[in-house]
Amino acid sequence: MAQQDPTSSQEKITLDIGGMTCASCSLRIEKELSHLPGVGLAEVNLALEKANIVFDPRLISPHQFVEAVTGIGYQVRQETYRLAVEGLDEVPVKTRFEERVAQMDGVYKVVTNAATGTATITLLQGIGDIHNVVQGLEREGFHISLQTDQARDPKDAERRSALIRLLVSLMLTIPLWLAMGEMFVRVGPRWLANPWVQLTLATLVQWGPGWSFTRRAYQNIRHGNANMDVLVALGTLSAWTFSTYNVFAHGPLFFDSSATVITLILVGKYLEAVAKGRTSTAIQEMLALRPKTSQVLQADGTYRPTDVDAIAVGQFIQIRPGDRIPVDGVVTEGHGLVDASLLTGEPELQSVSVGSTVSAGTIHQGERAFIMQAQGIGQDTMLAQIVRAVEEAQAGKAPIQRFADRVSNVFVPTVVALAVLTFVLTGGLTANWTAALLHAVAVLVVACPCALGLATPTAVMVGSGMGARYGILYRNGEALERVSQVTRLAMDKTGTLTEGRPQVIAVLPYGDVLEAEVVGYAASLEAEANHPLSRAVLAYAHNVSRPAVEGVYTEEGRGVVGEAASGEGTVVVGTEALLRDYGIIWPQTWETSQIAEWMQQGATIIYVGLHDRLLGAIAIADRVRDDAAFAIQRLQANGYRVSMLTGDRLPSAHAIAARVGIEDVHAELSPTEKAELIKQWQAQGERVAMVGDGVNDAPALAVAFVGMAVATGSDIAMHTADVTLVRPEINAAGQALLIGQRTMAKIRQNLFWALGYNLVGIPLAAFGVISPALAGGAMAFSSVLVVTNSLALRRMTIDTEPSGHQPIKESNKLWNV
Ligand SMILES: Nc1ncnc2c1ncn2[C@@H]1O[C@H](COP(=O)(O)OP(=O)(O)OP(=O)(O)O)[C@@H](O)[C@H]1O
Ligand SMILES: [Cu+]
User: For the CA atoms of the chain, what is the radius of gyration?
Assistant: First the structure.
C-alpha cells in the first residue's frame, strides 16, 4: 500500500461535489477516483456532497480529480474571486503573478485581465482559502485588493435554481391536475381537456424542469452507470412518449403522470437538500463562534477593531465583557471569566488570569476587560482543529454503510429489470398494454435508491455533530460505530481518573540526606522528562538548586535515569524496582509505615537514588476528577465493566479505585503490559474502550477496540485515538458511548425503513395498487423522511444524572495537609 512506502508522500484533500442524486452516483465517483494513479483512498459522502481523497501529489494533481469527476458528468464546486492587482498591465508582473498564483494551494484556475488590472481566481471549494492566497501574494510583494470578499456559495445558487425549477414545474402541472379532475367532476375550463393543451404542458415539464433528470441519466448511462435519474427519466419518458403517441392515435392520455412525478420528485429533492443542509448545523454553529473583528493593539497604543483574519501571532488583543475570543492565546493583563460551553460542552465558567491560555470561540463573561496575546491563529486554533476533526469524521464512511453500498450497486439495474418484467407480464396476461405501461412506470419511479444512500451518512453527520456539542470528537464513522459495541472500559489512572495536575505533598529523605538534595537530583532528571509526575517535582523544586546531570533518558513507565556531572555516579528517580535494577542498595527497615500510609491515601511514591545510595522518597498526590465517581457508577449501572489500569503501585491504585468505585484494579503495569491485558480481554470476546491521556498509554489506546483520549491542554490533534474527549470529564466517555449507540440505532432504523419501503413499494406498484404519480410522491418523500429521521437525533437528551442512582457525595479532597 502506498501509505507504507516511506518514500511516498500522502496528501489529503476534500472536494465539494455537485450533481449527485443517490448512492449510485457517489459510488460511481468513488470508483472513478480510486482508479486514478496515485490515489490511495477515495471516499464520497452523499449527504455532505464531499469527496475525501488521499493521494500522492507527485503522481497526480487535484486538477486531474476535477477532470475525472466532470468527465463522468458531475461537478466539483468552485469559488471565484476577483482581485485588483497593481501593475498587472506590465507584462513581467503579469507573468510572475500568474505563475505564483497557479502554484498556490487550492487554486484551480487564474485568468488575468491586463486592461482592467484584475485577476479572476477560481479556488476548489474546501481546499483553497482566499485569505491565504491573498496573504501569500502580498508576501511575494504584490499589491492586491480583494474585490468580492465572500464568494457566493455555489450550493445557494443550486438551491435557488432548484426552487425555481420546482415552482415552474408545479405551475405547469396544476392545470394538468385540473384537467384530470375535469374528467371526473366536470369542473374547470373545458379547454384544459384538449389533448394538445395537455401535450404542450406535459412537454414543457418534461423538457424544462424535468430535463435535469434526463440529462444526468444520459450522462450516467453513457459512463456505464445507473442511478436514480435513470429510473426517473425512464419512467417519465415512457409515460410521456406513450401519451404523445396516443394524442395522434386517439388513445388514453396520462400526461399528468409524467408531470406529477417530475414535480413531486423536484419538491422532494428540494426538501431533502434543505434537510441535508441542517445536518451540518453543529459545524456551522461552531464556525460562527469566531467573531469578525476584535480590538487589536495598534502602534499608537490604542485598541482598534481589526479583522480577525488579519491578527498575527504576538499581537495584543483587548477582550471586553461579552466579547468572543478571536484566536488562541494567553492572558497578559487582568482576568476574565470564560464560557467554553459551546466549544467543549463544559458548562462551568472558567476563571482565567495572567498566564492562562484562552481559546478562540469562547466567550468572556466577566465584568471587566482583559488583554491577551495571540499565539495560535487561523487553522492552528483549537476551534479550527475541532471543526476539522468533526468534518473529517462526517465525511468518512461507517462500516455499516458497506451493506447499503452493496445494495445500491445493483439497485437500479434490478429495478429496471423488474419494470420490464412487470410490463411484459401484465401486458401478456391482461392484453391491456396501457395498464402494463403504467404499472411499469410506477415500479420505476417508486423505487428509491436515495433513501438507502442517505440512511447512514446523514445519521453519522448528525451524531458526530452532537458529539462535538458535548466536546466529544469521533475520528470517523467507524469510530462512531465501534463505540456502540463496547462492553468494557479500561481507565488509566493518572491524568484520566485524576486531574493530571499532581502535587508533591511530602519529601522523606533517607538517613542524614538533606531534603534539598533529594528534590534537587529529582528535579534535574525530571526537567528532561515529560510526565505529569515530572511537572509536580519541578513545580515543587522551583527554588532548589539542581545538580547538573548528563545523558538523561526516560525508562518508560518506570522513571528517569542520568549521570551526575560531578562524577558521583548514576542518578535514578522512579519506582523501587527501577532503583534496584540500577544497583541501589535498599535499606532493610526504612519508614515503611509512613510510606504505606501515604499510598493508602492514594499518593504515588517515587524514589531518588545516587550511585548505590538511596537518597529518599517523594510522595505525590493528584486530585480525583470531580465527576469520576459519578461517571463510573453510571457506566456500571449501564452494564459496562469498568477496570483501572495503572503503572502505579497497588496500594495507591486501590486508594483511588475505592474513591471512584472501581473494583477491578490492575497495577504496576508497564505501557506494553497495559496493551497486553487489553488484548487478552479482547481475545475473550470483550470489546474494550481504553480511556487514557496519551501519556504512557499510547500502546493501550492503539490496541483497544476503541481508544478514547482525554485531551490535555489545547492539543486535541490526537490522531491515534478513535475518540477524543475535549471536555476533561470522565462522564464524557459514557456520553461518547451513548451517542454512538443512538446513532447506530438511528442508522439501523433508516436502513430498515429504506429497504422496507422498496420491498413493499415495488410490488404494490407492479400490481398497479399505486399509480405512477403516487409512486413518484412516495419515492420523493421516503428520502426526505430518512433525512428527517436522522435530524431527530439532534433532540436526543444526554442527561448528566444517572438513572435511579444518586451521585456519591464524598469529599474529593485527596490530601489533608
Ligand atoms: N518521570 C517519572 N519520574 C518518576 N517516576 C516515574 C516517572 N515516570 C514513571 N514513574 C514511575 O513509574 C510508575 C508508572 O508510571 P506510568 O507512567 O506507567 O504510570 P502512572 O503515571 O503512575 O499512572 P497511569 O498508568 O495511571 O497513567 C509511576 O507510578 C512512577 O512511580
Ligand atoms: Cu428517491
Answer: 33
Instruction: Collect the ranges in the chain with pLDDT lower than 70.
Output: 1-8, 125-128, 148-154, 179-193, 712-720, 799-817
Interface ipTM: 0.95
Domain 499-624 homologous superfamily, CATH:
Calcium-transporting ATPase, cytoplasmic domain N (3.40.1110.10)
Residue 422: closest CA among 162, 1, 757, 764: 764
- Residue 534, ligand 1, Cβ within 6 A: yes
Which sign does the torsion angle of CA 646, 651, 655, 658 carry? Answer: positive
Q: How many CB atoms lie within 10 A of CB 638?
A: 13
Task: Determine if ligand 1 sits within 6 Å of the CB of residue 573.
Answer: yes
For 326-340, the pLDDT digits (tens) are 999 999 999 888 888
Give pTM, 2 decimals: 0.81
Ligand 1 pocket mutation, candidates 498, 526, 531, criterion most atoms within 8 A of CB: 531
Sheet containing 39-45: which strands, arranged edge to edge?
39-45, 50-55, 11-18, 75-76
pLDDT tens per residue across span 176-195: 877 665 555 455 566 666 78
Q: What residues sit around ligand 2, an ion, with C-beta below 5 angstroms? A: 448, 450, 779, 783
Q: How far apart are the C-alpha atoms of 363 and 337, rounded to whole Å?
A: 8
How far is Cα 617 from Cα 152, in angstroms, rounded to an integer? 66
Domain ranges of the chain: 78-151, 287-388, 471-498+626-736, 499-624
Residue 46: which of 70, 25, 69 has the closest Cα?
25
Question: What CATH code is assigned to 471-498+626-736?
Answer: 3.40.50.1000
